[in-house]
């Protein structure tokens, strides 16, 4: 029992400390004045319009639909979808509600999940995690984009005070769908997925620059979170950030376990999915708040708070899940 606890604690430290360091480095860059407040928006555009599309296209260009494990995908995203929908019902259908909903179910699977699952569960666990990662952006980020666009349209329509006919609603939905597809998130996902089905390989002259841009996304996005922490009055949002962190770190994995159990998933796959759900809020949620200019301070604080809390919650969750490995 003691050795298992030591392995869990070490794995969590190995995966989470680099995230904390990069956020702290960004905070320091802001404090030293090396990155001005006026540059935050420009840095956000680089991350959202250049680095993120590069990662999404390159990741999806390697996904073969026929190789995906549909049961694990269905379990993971059913739980995420239920939590997202429940948050919208609770918070209201708005861009702020969408930002909170995304924060509740969007895990830091790359920077934290890959090293953590690799150390604790080995190659078998990584296979399950990579199945989720391969379609994580396709499902969550595309769906979130559509919800954000619909919320923007709804808020604009409410502000105009005009009558709501079925025709105007249809036009609003159609425009939101168009904006949701011709967008820096879904468009590279769709293009990459279509390219993957051709069976072709990206030429090295294209793939290598894309790989370099993709590798830069995680560190730059986390430093941007730290920079925003310095320039934002996030202390006022400690209560909201703690609430988001609690839902992300505790409610999300509990809901996933319930959904997985009902769907008949057992053993290693269920434990790995629950571990992924227990990860802190991913930095991509922050990019959405920057793009739509809503809930930036709150979500920025929630990323830092959930990452810090995860140092305690993840080892406890891993220990609680350990007996389930024997039931697979």
TrEMBL record:
Pfam families given in the database record: Mem_trans
UniProt-annotated location(s): Cell membrane
Transmembrane segments: 7-30, 42-61, 73-93, 126-148, 181-200, 212-234, 246-264, 270-289, 301-325
Gene3D superfamilies noted in UniProt: 1.20.1530.20
Alphabetical UniProt keywords: Cell membrane, Membrane, Transmembrane, Transmembrane helix, Transport
Xref: InterPro entries: Mem_transp_PIN-like (IPR004776), Na+/solute_symporter_sf (IPR038770)
Family, per entry: Belongs to the auxin efflux carrier (TC 2.A.69) family.
Name of this chain's protein: Permease
Species, as recorded: Comamonas odontotermitis
């Amino acid at each position: 029992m003691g050795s298992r606890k030591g392995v869990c604690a070490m794995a969590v430290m190995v995966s989470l400390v680099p995230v904390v360091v990069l956020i702290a480095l960004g905070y320091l860059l802001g404090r030293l004045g090396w990155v001005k407040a006026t540059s935050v928006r420009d840095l956000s555009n680089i991350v959202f319009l250049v680095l993120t599309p590069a990662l999404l296209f390159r990741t999806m260009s390697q996904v073969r639909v026929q190789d995906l494990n549909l049961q694990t995908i269905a379990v993971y995203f059913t739980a995420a979808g239920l939590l997202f929908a429940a948050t919208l019902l609770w918070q209201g259908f708005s861009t702020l509600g969408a930002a909170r909903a995304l924060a509740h179910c969007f895990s830091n699977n790359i920077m934290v999940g890959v090293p953590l699952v690799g150390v604790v569960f080995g190659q078998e666990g990584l296979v399950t995690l990579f199945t989720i990662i391969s379609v994580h952006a396709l499902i969550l980020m595309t769906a979130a984009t559509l919800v954000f666009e619909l919320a923007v349209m709804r808020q604009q329509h409410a502000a105009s005070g005009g009558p709501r006919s079925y025709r105007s609603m249809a036009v609003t939905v159609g425009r939101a769908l168009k904006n949701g597809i011709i967008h820096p998130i879904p468009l590279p996902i769709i293009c990459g997925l279509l390219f993957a089905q051709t069976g072709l390989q990206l030429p090295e002259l294209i793939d290598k620059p894309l790989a370099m841009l993709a590798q830069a996304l995680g560190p730059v996005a986390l430093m941007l979170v730290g920079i925003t922490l310095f320039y934002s009055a996030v202390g006022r949002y400690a209560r909201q950030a703690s609430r988001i962190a609690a839902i992300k770190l505790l409610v999300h994995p509990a809901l996933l376990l319930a959904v997985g159990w009902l769907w008949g998933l057992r053993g290693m796959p269920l434990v790995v999915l629950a571990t992924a759900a227990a990860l802190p809020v991913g930095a991509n949620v922050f990019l959405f708040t920057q793009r739509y200019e809503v809930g930036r301070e709150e979500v920025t604080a929630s990323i830092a708070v959930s990452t810090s809390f995860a140092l305690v919650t993840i080892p406890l969750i891993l220990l609680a899940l350990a007996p389930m490995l024997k039931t697979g």
